[in-house]
Specification:
Number of strands: 4
Structural class: alpha+beta
CATH topology: Nuclear Transport Factor 2, Chain: A
Number of domains: 1
């Protein structure tokens, strides 16, 4: 019975690895971004919305000599041969810098709970 669990675990692990490799918001976005902006520091990246034909990838980064955090949304489209960068949909500053991360909720936060 144990060998079936090990086999099932391996199948799930391979499937997750395949999904990670095929997701353009992982390595491909970071590679494309680093090629375009080699001196920027990438803080976070991931997919937000997607379909079989296109996916929107969010990337947070910091410019050199700046504490401001920026976020872009890049669109990737499936060309049949793999995912290809299409265009930048949104680019801009976030309301938060590193010093604000532990400051608690900000005015305008939709999920902010009252502080008692």
């Amino acid at each position: 019975m144990l060998k079936y669990y090990v086999f099932l675990f391996l199948i799930v692990a391979i499937a997750l690895f395949y999904v990670f490799i095929k997701d353009p918001c992982n390595r491909q976005l970071e590679t494309d971004f680093s090629n375009k902006h080699p001196s920027y520091k990438i803080l976070n990246s991931g997919a937000s919305e997607g379909s079989p034909e296109s996916v929107r990838c969010h990337i947070s980064y910091r410019k050199p000599d700046s504490e401001q955090i920026y976020e872009d949304i890049w669109l990737y489209q499936d060309s049949g041969r793999g995912w290809e960068f299409s265009r930048i949909l949104v680019t801009g500053k976030t309301e938060q810098t590193d010093g604000d991360r532990d400051a608690g909720p900000r005015i305008g936060d939709a999920e902010a709970a009252p502080q008692f």
